[in-house]
Amino acid sequence: MSARTITLDDSLYAYILEHALREPPILARLRAETAAMREANMQIAPEQGQFMALLVELIGARRTLEVGTFTGYSALCVALALPADGRVVACDISETFTAVARRYWAEAGVADKIDLHLAPAVETLERLLAEGGAGTFDFMFIDADKESYDAYYEYGLRLIRPGGLIAIDNVLWNGAVADPARDDKETAAIRALNDKVREDRRVSMSLVPIGDGLMLARRR
Asked: Is the pTM of this model over 0.90?
């Protein structure tokens, strides 16, 4: 029993990866290639990818949305968990990073499940709404520019069906959210969103201390 979430030291984290991670080889290779990049810190943790795949299965998701794709690890985790007719709409602005993603999606046999939109995410989300997409998505993952998190969250509440789930990454921001000395715009935006979701009666919520913190908001 524990009255609070326990701290993960290196040995305990290694135990989790060894005994609880079911990571297909293709995901491991994508993670390894991404780890060699200068921007490697933008990669989600493998146990978080597995957790998100489980969430997608639990809610019976078929149509999902992602804001911030990077090299495609999270989209691949979700796509592999979707049924044959499942779809991921992925939003990003980098042709360089998503070129890596496309290679692995094709190799994994899920490229036909993922619709990648290379444009500012707000433009893509607006277009989805204009095309009748309101309330048609089951799951949304947000992992992009932090100052736009509030906007992405509000779009998500319009695009996700009742009972659908929004997952927001980096909500602990490597501990900065709890550091009064941190007053940069990104940290302030994440703090504001955390407070907003906590008080938002449009959703049920839980902040899960996995990876860099994952906020889960289920639309009521």
From this structure: yes
The residue type found at 164 is G
Q: Which residue has the tokens 């906007």?
A: 151
How many CB atoms within 10 Å of residue 15? 12
pLDDT for the residue numbered 74 = 98
- 61 and 38 in contact (C-beta within 8 Å)? no
In sequence order, the 6+-apart residues with CB closer than 8 A to the CB of 38 are none
Helix (H) / strand (E) containing 73: helix 73-81
Region at 38 (left for phi over 0; alpha for psi -120 to 50; beta for the rest): alpha
Q: Quick: pLDDT tens for 1-60.
A: 789 999 999 999 999 999 999 999 999 999 999 999 999 999 999 999 999 999 999 999
> How many residues appear in the chain?
220
Crossing angle (nearest 10°) for helices 10-20 and 46-58: 50
- Summarize pLDDT for 194-210 with one digit per residue, the tens: 999 999 999 999 999 99
Rounded Cα distance, 220 and 214, in Å: 19
**Ranges of H-type helices in 84-217:** 95-108, 121-130, 149-159, 185-199
Q: Contact 13/47 with Cβ under 8 angstroms?
A: no
